[in-house]
Amino acid sequence: QVQLVESGGGLVQAGGSLRLSCATSGIIFSLNTLGWYRQAPGKQREMVATINSAGSTNYVDSVKGRFTISRDNAKSTVYLQMNSLKPGDTAVYYCNAPAYGSWGRGTQVTVSS
Asked: Which residue, among 69, 68, 71, has the nearest Cα to 24 in the 3D structure?
C-alpha cells in the first residue's frame, strides 16, 4: 500500500522559513520522481518542485531561488525547504509520486504579512 505523509506546515510570518517533509512507504523510492504541489483556496493545484531519481530538480518560476527540494533515499523521504516565504505561498502543500498516482493528504502552510 502506497502512503505519502506530509509534515512540517504551519503559520509563519513573511520572510520566514519552513521545511516540509514527506515520508513515503510502499514505493521504490530511489527509482522514482517525487514532487511537491500546492493548492491555494479557489485556485487549481500547481506543481511547486520535482526531483527525479538522479537528483535533477525543477521548480515553478515563482519559487526559484527561495525553495529547495531534496531527497533522502535511505529514509524514503522528500523535503521542501522554503525560505523567504511570501503571503502568496499560502496553500495546502501535497507530496506526489507520479508513477503511482498517489498523493498525500497535505499540510497547510500559512504566511502572514
From this structure: 71
Q: Are 50 and 67 in contact (CB under 8 A)?
A: no
- Residue 102: the pLDDT is 86
Residues 88/84/75/48 CA torsion (nearest 10 deg): 30
Contact 59, 49 (CB under 8 A): yes
Per residue in 64-78, pLDDT tens? Answer: 999 999 999 999 999
Q: Are 23 and 76 in contact (CB under 8 A)?
A: yes
Q: Rounded CA gap, 103 and 28, in Å?
A: 15
Q: How many CA atoms lie within 13 A of 107 on its CB side?
A: 19
